[in-house]
């Protein structure tokens, strides 16, 4: 789950990271009032759960409250990468001398949280990584020791910080690390962390991604979820208890089991098409779950064939076959589909599908080839 900039920065602030004064507005009048209270120049920032808002015109400076109102008027309702801006953050504008990138992610290869830092912040870190990889510093942290002072000081030096900025940086890096750990985050990022004209470090932007599997331990963080800003299909999937990731291809995949779902995606690619999604309906899925999954897959206008790949263990193939047919009663569609059922009660399952003229195949290779042919417009 992603947090908004304002939410992430408020969490960082609880850990001693300095952030600009500011507040959130949902109307231009509110933005004006906040700017009036702050006094001086402000920055009005769209709160949407994507990066690169600045480039998209979603971050604008304003010299006085009237200008803040006018700018908020422009930004609220704006579409940024498919998301509608419902809120803006109005912050005191910073006098920026330098922009630094500072983030933490988990590096699964070394089994540790890793600080990623660059003195060339502000732009997206992926761009720096591509164009100027030498400008990126990586610092693994021992999870048992945490971020210790000498490491943070070294990092400050490597970033070219000197004098009073070093101790400020140590406090920020340690605070960010603690916020990351305490929140069970998979990403905590400040981009940019700026050096101001007064010689202070300030977190001007903030981003956090939380581990969904750990959210049950953090009801206060779960409560920050902004459903308005979520992808509709991912929200429906979560409510139905399905693991779903939307992709860009044309073949919808419905599979029970995460490993099997990945193998299914690989084989779809192998036969020359692209999967439209990762979808694990889980073990023992009944008709209602199959129907929910089918609705999610078919809501994607790019999908032009659906491949069911079911391994019957605890799940019985005949039950899944009935589930598919029941789901199709509910979700009417002309999109061609094929099912591959193996395992418990596979013959019964295939007989049920055959009686309903629903195409099925015995091997995954065969089923995937049928799906690819269907997607390309041929009749399998
Ligand atoms: P993002 O584009 O979504 O990452 O949004 P950011 O909050 O990082 O803002 C983008 C850019 O706008 C920053 O890298 C800064 O260059 C600029 N910016 C943001 N806040 C301020 C501010 O308070 N003062 C000034 N001068 N520039 C700002
Ligand atoms: Mn940013």
Draw up the topology in text.
Elements (H helix, E strand, L loop, with lengths): L1 E2 L1 H10 L7 E4 L2 H11 L3 E5 L12 E4 L2 H11 L3 E2 L2 E2 L3 E5 L3 E12 L4 E7 L6 H7 L5 E4 L8 H10 L5 H19 L2 E12 L4 E3 L3 E4 L8 H4 L9 H8 L3 E4 L4 E5 L2 H13 L6 E4 L6 H12 L6 E8 L4 H14 L6 E7 L2 H10 L4 E2 L2 H12 L5
Parallel strand pairs: 15-17, 17-18, 18-19
Antiparallel strand pairs: 1-13, 2-7, 3-4, 3-7, 5-6, 8-9, 8-11, 9-10, 11-12, 11-13, 14-16
Helix pairs in contact: 2-3, 5-6, 8-10, 10-11, 11-12
The protein binds guanosine-5'-diphosphate and manganese (II) ion.
Question: Can you describe what's shown?
Answer:
The chain has 380 residues and is an alpha+beta fold. It folds into 3 domains: 21-92, Dna Ligase, domain 1 (2-Layer Sandwich); 96-222, ATP-grasp fold, B domain (D-amino Acid Aminotransferase, Chain A, domain 1); 231-375, Rossmann fold, CATH 3.40.50. Helix content is 37%, strand content 25%. It contains 13 helices and 19 strands. Strands 1, 8, 9, 10, 11, 12 and 13 form a 7-stranded antiparallel β-sheet that branches. A 4-stranded antiparallel β-sheet has the order 2-7-3-4, covered by helices on one side. Helix 12 (346-355) links the parallel strand 18 (337-343) and strand 19 (360-361). It binds guanosine-5'-diphosphate and manganese (II) ion. Manganese (II) ion binds next to loops.
């Amino acid at each position: 789950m992603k947090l908004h900039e304002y939410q992430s920065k408020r969490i960082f602030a609880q850990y001693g990271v300095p952030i600009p004064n500011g507040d959130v507005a949902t109307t231009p009048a509110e933005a004006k009032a906040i700017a009036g209270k702050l006094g001086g120049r402000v920055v009005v920032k769209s709160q949407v759960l994507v990066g690169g808002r600045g480039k998209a015109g979603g971050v604008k400076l304003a010299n006085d409250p009237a200008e803040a109102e006018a700018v908020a008027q422009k930004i609220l309702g704006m579409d940024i990468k498919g998301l509608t801006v419902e809120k803006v953050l109005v912050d005191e504008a910073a006098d920026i001398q330098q922009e630094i990138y500072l983030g933490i992610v988990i590096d699964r290869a070394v089994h540790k949280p890793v600080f990623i830092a660059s003195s060339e912040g502000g732009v997206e870190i992926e761009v720096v990584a591509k164009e100027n990889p030498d400008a990126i510093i990586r610092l693994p942290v021992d999870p048992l020791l945490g971020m210790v002072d000498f490491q943070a000081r070294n990092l400050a030096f490597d970033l070219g910080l000197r004098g009073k900025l070093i101790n400020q940086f140590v406090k920020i890096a340690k605070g960010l690390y603690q916020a990351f750990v305490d929140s069970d985050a998979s990403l905590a990022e400040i981009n940019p962390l700026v050096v101001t004209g007064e010689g202070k470090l300030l977190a001007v932007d903030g981003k956090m991604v939380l581990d969904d599997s750990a959210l049950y331990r953090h009801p206060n963080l779960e409560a920050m979820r902004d459903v308005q800003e979520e992808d509709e299909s991912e929200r429906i999937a979560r409510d139905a208890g399905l693991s779903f990731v939307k992709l860009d291809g044309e073949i919808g995949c419905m599979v029970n089991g995460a490993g099997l779902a990945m193998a299914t995606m690989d084989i779809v690619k192998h036969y020359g098409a692209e999967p439209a999604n990762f979808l694990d309906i889980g073990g023992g899925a009944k008709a209602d779950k199959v129907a929910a999954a089918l609705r999610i897959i078919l809501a994607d206008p790019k999908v032009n064939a659906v491949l069911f790949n079911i391994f019957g263990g605890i799940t019985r193939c005949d039950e899944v076959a009935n589930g598919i047919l029941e789901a199709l009663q509910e979700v009417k569609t002309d999109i061609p589909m094929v099912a591959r059922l193996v395992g418990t009660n596979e013959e019964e399952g295939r007989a049920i599908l055959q009686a309903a003229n629903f195409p099925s195949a015995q091997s995954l290779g065969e089923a995937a080839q049928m799906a690819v042919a269907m997607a390309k417009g041929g009749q399998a």
